[in-house]
Each structure stands twice: as structure tokens, then as C-alpha cells.
């Protein structure tokens, strides 16, 4: 008996020691900006170790997930510099900014004046050099972020071909949803969302013209934040539509997305849209709106039709109704069963004119962008098409043609159809979404899934998607919060409070292997 008692005491003592050791180790899995900075401050982690971990994750998982096109060969050097500056500041990285030492993955259309390519997923732009960093990259570098690499995307924002699946590009192949192998990862910022979801990077940047942040966020169980058009500069980013393009964060939490947003917003003389949107940026930034009681007093408009049609009878539909109870129980007023005027036309890009206008804008703005590159094999959309035709094996033309690019090349900004499309979409937005918001005095529109992204895209409105659950097959779905221009503060309060009340995100089980920092030196 005595020996058994002694053995029990020994085992108990060892369990305490093990717990103490485990508590002192940093957990990379699902790490947030806050937990990373806490580990920095407690000398339990360095930026170099963090970069090592993410590089290892990319090298291990990317062959199957196909979400990262290339890693930055200077990432460790940037991490070492961040560590040096933190040590000089007394070890508290937050005094240097919330993104100091934090690795960030960029969509492959966001320009970097370094050793990385900026190719929109196409071989046509390999080796081409941009004149300078994109404005958002300048802001990230100023904030001390580590540029980890470039994420895959739907080639040329899915304009490459009307037949290719979302998340496919010639350089990377087709991205894989980390939750359901047969599930759509969605595009065009697919790689940014997949990498964050599978813990291959802390945070990422994507771009959206119509659904390209919201849909990947929704389908990969991460937070996607598409700001009001002009809140973030598009300068230095391969363009699609100056009317609808927006740069925004894709992260695992609302808090992380807000920290990234704070770092990248601001006026940029190279993008005139930022002049108008700068008035929306609050003193003190957006982190002040991360309030757990943010639902209190909010007036939320629920639009079911047609967004719930594809979810009828599913666990997602029942979960949505449960989430409405969460809104109400946390102090929000829920205005249910609202409808958007002309919603059928809005969601049909041929009827609304969106497709015609986007193709024309793409040709016009891309030609301008390509003309500003150096060492580029292509200087116009016509030359991109010719490159693809002359390199069928390289561009994998046997898989998907380039009918989208050819259709864009045939457009003209002065065509009557294109001019009329811009007027029609403005009218549809004013008589649809804006009317809904104003007449019902709403703080946010709430919908299930990602299809409402088009409603918000054509008018340049902000949107934020938060993980809301998983269907019977394990496929993620989110709730999308949309608001009028400049309503980011209300959306953050609403989305953050919902996230904190529900905490629905779960990491993909197939990619959840955990490691601790002593493995990385």
C-alpha cells in the first residue's frame, strides 16, 4: 500500500510539472495576434520561431491544399529585424504596433517590390517587376509585419475562363477546401482563406470585387472583412474594377481582422477613392469597437429570400434561426423577413449589367497597370491572351480556355451597354439595399451564406462574414453582416459580439496537428 501511495504522489507531482511545462510553451495552433504578442512579451516566442513554424506548415500542407504560390526568401530576415526592434523596445511588441513581427500572407495580385512575383496566378506575369509596393503593403511593412509570401487565387480574378472552377490558377492548380475535399474553397481569394483556416499563417490579405473575400471566408470557416470601397487603397494591386475593388483582411477572428484593417486603411494620393472614404476612418482606429456587448441596441434586418433557398431543410437553416435568438438575447432588435427590391435582377450579372461593366473595366484598367510594369512579357490584355495561346502547356490550356479574357478584350468602356450598366447598378443599389437599410433604420443587414455579397459589391458597401457552423457533411457556412458605406464600426461591434457569444469556428480536423515552439530555433 505504501509503495502504491508513493507512486500516486509521484505521478501527481509529475502531472503538475508537465502542466507547468505545457503552460510555458506557446501554442501555434489557432494562435491570434493577441496570444502571439503575449508570448513575445513573456519571451516564450520569437518572430523567427513563428515564421519557421508557418514555413514548415506550408511545406507540409501546401502540396495537398495548393493555397500558397511562393514563400518570401526574406521572411526570416524580416522576422529577425522584428525581434531586434522588440528587444530594443524592452520586449513589448505591442508598443511597436499590433502587427509587429506578425507573418502576413498576401493574395498574388497585391504588388510587392521584392523577390516575390505578383502574377494574379498566371505565368504571363512571372518575372515582371512592379514599380513599388502596393500602398497596403507599405502600411504592413511600416507596422512591422513580416511578408510571408503570396497566396494562390482564381486566375485573373476568375476572368480567365467562365468554365474554370473558383480557386484555380495555372501556377498553383486548384485549391482544396481544408474541411471538405470536394467542397468549393470559393474565390478569388481562395488561397488566403485556405491558408488561414489550416493554420498556415496568422493572418492574410485578400481582395474583393464581388464576393472574393466574403465567399472564401464563408466556405473556409474564417472571418472575411471587405471594407467600404476606398477605405483601403487599391494602388499597386492588379485591378479589376475601380468601382468595386476593395482590399481587406482574412483572419481566424474578428479581432485579428480589425487589427489588420487598422494597419492598412488610410488616404493614398495614388487612389482617389481613398479621399472620399477617409472621412469614415474614426479617431483611434477600429479596435475600439471590439465590444462584447456590441449587439446591444443594434437593429438588424434579416433577409431570407432568396439567400436561404439553397439551405432549406438543412442544419444551416436551423442554426441560422438559433443565431437570431442569440442576437435578440444579447440586446439586438431583430427585424425579420425583409426583402430587397429587384433582388433577382441584382443577383443576375447579365441583367444588372455587372458582367458587361466588369469586363470592360478589367480591360481598361489592366492595360494601364501592365503598362507600368518593367521586365514584363505582356503589356496589354491582348498580349496576355497571345501569351496563353502561344504557351498552351505552360498555361494548361487543355484544362480551361480563356473565353473570359477574350470577352473582356472585345469590350469598350464607351459602349452603350457599359455606360447604361453603371447607371442601372447605381439605381438598383439605391432602390434596393440602401432603401432597405434607411426605411427600416437598420444598423446591419444579416444573411446566411455568401450570396448577399453581390448586393453589397455593386454599391461599394462593406461586408463582414463570421463562421456560423457546419452542415451535415462538415462544410462550413457563415453569417454575413452588411452595412451602408462607412458603417464598419457598427459591423465590427455586431460581428464581434456575435462571434464571442457563439464561438462557432473549429479548425479543420485533417490539418490540426499541434507543435510547440522549442522545435523551431
Automatic annotation (TrEMBL):
<dbReference type="InterPro" id="IPR036928">
    <property type="entry name" value="AS_sf"/>
</dbReference>
<protein>
    <submittedName>
        <fullName>Probable amidase At4g34880 isoform X1</fullName>
    </submittedName>
</protein>
<feature type="domain" description="Amidase">
    <location>
        <begin position="50"/>
        <end position="447"/>
    </location>
</feature>
<keyword id="KW-0732">Signal</keyword>
<dbReference type="Pfam" id="PF01425">
    <property type="entry name" value="Amidase"/>
</dbReference>
<dbReference type="InterPro" id="IPR023631">
    <property type="entry name" value="Amidase_dom"/>
</dbReference>
<feature type="signal peptide">
    <location>
        <begin position="1"/>
        <end position="19"/>
    </location>
</feature>
Amino acid at each position: 500500500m505504501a509503495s502504491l501511495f508513493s507512486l500516486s504522489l509521484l505521478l501527481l507531482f509529475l502531472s503538475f510539472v508537465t502542466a507547468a511545462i505545457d503552460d510555458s510553451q506557446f501554442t501555434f495552433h489557432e494562435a491570434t495576434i493577441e496570444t502571439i504578442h503575449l508570448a513575445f512579451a513573456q519571451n516564450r516566442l520569437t518572430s523567427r520561431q513563428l515564421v519557421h513554424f508557418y514555413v514548415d506548415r506550408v511545406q507540409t500542407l501546401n502540396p495537398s491544399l495548393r493555397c500558397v504560390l511562393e514563400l518570401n526568401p526574406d521572411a526570416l530576415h524580416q522576422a529577425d529585424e522584428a525581434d531586434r526592434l522588440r528587444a530594443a523596445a524592452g520586449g513589448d511588441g505591442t508598443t511597436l504596433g499590433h502587427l509587429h513581427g506578425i507573418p502576413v500572407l498576401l493574395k498574388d495580385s497585391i504588388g510587392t517590390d521584392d523577390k516575390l512575383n505578383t502574377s494574379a496566378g498566371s505565368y504571363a506575369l512571372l518575372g515582371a517587376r512592379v514599380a513599388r509596393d502596393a500602398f497596403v503593403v507599405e502600411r504592413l511593412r511600416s507596422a512591422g509585419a513580416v511578408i510571408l509570401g503570396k497566396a494562390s487565387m482564381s486566375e485573373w480574378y476568375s476572368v480567365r475562363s467562365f468554365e474554370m472552377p473558383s480557386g484555380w490558377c495555372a501556377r498553383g492548380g486548384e485549391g482544396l477546401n481544408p474541411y471538405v475535399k470536394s467542397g468549393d474553397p470559393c474565390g478569388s481569394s481562395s488561397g488566403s482563406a485556405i491558408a488561414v483556416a489550416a493554420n498556415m499563417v496568422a493572418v492574410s490579405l485578400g481582395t474583393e470585387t464581388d464576393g472574393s473575400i466574403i465567399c472564401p471566408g464563408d466556405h473556409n470557416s474564417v472571418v472575411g472583412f471587405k471594407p467600404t470601397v476606398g477605405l483601403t487603397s487599391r494602388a499597386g494591386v492588379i485591378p479589376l474594377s475601380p468601382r468595386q475593388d476593395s482590399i481587406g483582411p482574412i483572419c481566424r477572428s474578428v479581432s485579428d481582422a480589425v487589427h489588420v484593417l487598422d494597419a492598412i486603411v488610410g488616404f493614398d494620393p495614388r487612389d482617389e477613392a481613398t479621399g472620399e472614404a477617409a472621412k469614415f476612418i474614426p479617431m483611434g482606429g477600429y479596435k475600439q469597437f471590439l465590444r462584447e456587448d456590441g449587439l446591444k441596441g443594434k437593429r438588424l434586418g434579416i433577409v431570407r429570400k432568396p439567400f436561404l433557398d439553397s439551405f432549406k431543410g438543412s442544419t444551416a437553416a436551423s442554426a441560422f434561426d438559433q443565431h437570431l435568438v442569440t442576437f435578440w438575447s444579447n440586446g439586438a432588435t431583430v427585424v425579420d423577413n425583409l426583402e430587397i427590391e429587384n433582388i433577382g435582377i441584382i443577383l443576375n450579372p447579365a441583367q444588372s449589367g455587372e458582367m458587361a461593366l466588369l469586363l470592360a473595366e478589367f480591360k481598361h484598367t489592366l492595360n494601364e497597370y501592365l503598362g507600368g510594369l518593367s521586365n514584363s512579357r505582356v503589356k496589354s490584355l491582348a498580349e496576355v491572351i497571345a501569351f496563353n495561346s502561344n504557351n498552351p502547356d505552360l498555361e494548361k490550356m487543355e484544362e480551361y480556355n480563356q473565353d473570359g479574357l477574350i470577352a473582356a478584350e472585345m469590350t469598350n468602356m464607351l459602349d452603350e451597354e457599359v455606360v447604361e450598366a453603371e447607371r442601372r447598378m447605381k439605381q438598383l443599389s439605391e432602390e434596393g439595399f440602401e432603401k432597405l437599410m434607411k426605411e427600416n433604420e437598420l444598423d446591419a443587414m444579416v444573411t446566411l451564406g455568401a450570396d448577399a455579397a453581390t448586393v453589397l459589391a455593386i454599391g461599394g458597401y462593406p461586408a463582414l462574414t463570421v463562421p456560423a457552423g457546419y452542415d451535415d457533411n462538415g462544410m462550413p457556412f457563415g453569417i454575413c453582416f452588411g452595412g451602408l458605406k462607412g458603417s464598419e464600426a457598427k459591423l465590427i461591434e455586431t460581428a464581434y459580439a456575435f462571434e464571442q457569444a457563439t464561438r462557432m469556428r473549429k479548425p479543420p480536423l485533417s490539418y490540426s496537428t499541434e507543435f510547440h515552439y522549442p522545435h523551431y530555433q
